[in-house]
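Let us practice reading a record.
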Amino acid sequence: MQEGQVPGIHYRIEGELVPVLHTWLDGTMPLFFEHHIVLWKDPGLDIGVRAMKGALKRMVAGMPVFLTEARGPGEIAFSRDGVGHVFPLHLHPGYPVLVREHQFLAASGNCDYTFTRVKGVSNML
């Protein structure tokens, strides 16, 4: 079991085969994620929509145009439908990370989530 904390968010990762990400928000930092990965949430947690930049390009690329955002004090848990690993990445401001399509789980509200389209044959590789 891994535990950690970032400003406004405490998290715990449990499980091996299909891991679960439990998060506790203190109300100072929102958390955004894809809507279909939520297992459960506290009733008092506010859920909203986070619009992403470049909506037309995102639609053409098959990426989400909107992500779901949780705000306020409360607890929320996430998991995927299949096996895999969940691990935390504590990024410094301005440092990017590349994530394979549809493998993003959740991020704090101060992160930017965008994409780069790879053209041609290199896209298949």
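A brief commentary: The longest helix spans residues 55-61.
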